[in-house]
Fold this protein.
Amino acid sequence: MAQNNGFFENPTVKWIEHRLPIFSFLDHSLGSQYPTPRNLNYWWNFGSLAGFMLVVMILSGVFLAMNYTPHVDHAFGSVERIMRDVNYGWLIRYIHMNGASMFFIVVYIHIFRGLYFGSYKPPREILWWLGIVILLLMMATAFMGYVLPWGQMSFWGATVITNLFSAIPLVGDKIVTLLWGGFSVDNATLNRFFALHYLLPFVIAGVVVLHIWALHVHGSNNPLGIDARGPQDKIPFHPYYTVKDAFGLAVFMIFFMFFVFFAPNFFGEPDNYIPANPMVTPAHIVPEWYFLPFYAILRSVTFNILFIDAKLGGVLAMFGSILILFLLPWLDTSRVRSGRFRPVFKVFYWLFFVVCMLLGWVGGQPADATAAGIPLLRIGQVCTFWYFFHFVVVLPLLGWFERPRPLPISISQPVLGGGRIAAAAASKPMEKA
Amino acid sequence: MSRMRKLVVAGALALGIASPGFAAEAPKPPSQSWGFEGLFGTYDRASLQRGYQVYKEVCASCHSLGQIRYRDLGVSPGGIGLGYSEDEVKAIAAEFKVMDGPNDNGEMFERTARPADRLHSPFANEKAARSANNGAYPPDLSLIVEARKNGADYLYALLTGYKDPPAGVTLNEGMHYNAWFPGFQIAMGSPLSDDRVTYGDGTKATVSQMARDVTVFLAWASEPNLEQRKALGLKVILFLIILSGILYAAKRKIWSDVH
């Protein structure tokens, strides 16, 4: 869609453009008129991958919904009918099932990229907030989607998680009744979860539009974390990043499709192939893997804190672990965005990463398990402590005490004294011929 | 939290899988080699047909297989069936009666099963099944391989894992000792014994042979589309690898004036 290939001279295009300038809108959004830092690395691919996964989930979900029956007596059977009798139903369902895991993998990498390169810092705070809102919506959507096949984990996961809301003082029980649409997880629950599971992805899509809008105001952050100084620091999104994103997408698809075709139940629990039975509790109720770190935080609060009992404390810690991200732009007091120039931050960043992984591992184990003689509960508690300590103490103090390495002068001149990149940049301003 | 833990423990006790004196976790069953594993895995048709025979003559007296229809036993376009011909499938179905109706007079009636019917269920409902089985409920086997950790390995180990209880272990009334069942006591008695069935193809019906065949059959019942899935998967992955290569070359070319 570059302006020199005659596209905008085409009479039909001109006619439409005069009435609805959609082509120039696209060109300014994702085309040759959207200037992008020239130095984005492959970690910047995960934003477009997340957008792609949202589309995959909505499309596969719509086709599943055509064959699914949200009724406690028929839900499990209708899913099996999709798997066995609907043409390529097994493929659509395995794409949707594994797509949920892929969506979270991509989004978690996207978030950790932002955490490392300081993408939440001014002027991108609202962009960051919108991202957290998307994460929360994704979690709600994924949770309700997991209930729909009405297997044992669907039912008992729904029971455990909805019960969490009963910890809220005064109105907790009323909220739970409202979520259930009755006095236990039952047909009314399944019906409203289905309705909401179909609705929320479109809400996500709406917030994604805001997210991209906010992104376009100041453009992408970059691995150096410094602002672009001029046209020599930027290249048009198309064709440079369209082709780079396309290549990344193809590689990601190999990973995604490997699970769909060769290990479709890798991320799932065998128990969810047993129809829901309110009279029989599974030995271990575990949420899907992408909730495990938060599940570990929830379970690690086993003690009362003043007037807050352990259950409410766990719920607050779990929600707090995500809500604290809203404050991150102010908790991180360093003015340097990129972790590349922050030697101490780098260490704490990777420590935080390990803590999150440990939380995920602990969350997947039985509550009373031990490893090398250490109760996992203790490990979970230490990690939970560190999770919050990182945000509330480490990041604010680092900004004061850390001595960042000197920042490069500009994106096109990352190494003082120039070099081949600088030379190439000088001869090539932000236009793709 | 404690409420949830209590719930879980109560549920486990109710299931009888955490009864005092028994560890709730069974050990990991030994790994077997199955023809349907791996990138190119397929079901062994002869083993499938023998497995169906074991299911029909042994398991089906207590266990339903409600997700499978007689027609699934035949040959389908995706090559996912058991390999019986259309006439053979009709003959297999014709051995069973199903309740249908109501007819124009409002009456239910019995008729001969057709290929489109689901496999005959031994009991009318769960209550009837429990009442006939000392209170235990023989689960539907349609998804038994997918619905258990270690799937086929577990099922094979379970079917061949009946032993006398070790010293000091007392079993509850009517229960049997099995080294691979969570909690180690299982309501189902050892279903297989040598020559329990007579195979048409002359294969010797040892316990391990029958256990293997019926496990392959039930793995197929859990996932009849497995062969179609893997065959399509190879094409898709191959396509994506080539596509990645082309896109990488395009990326290199387009970026050549930036680097």
Notes: Residues 341 and 405 of chain A are 5 Å apart (CA to CA). Strands of chain A lie at 35-37, 234-236, 370-371, 374-375.
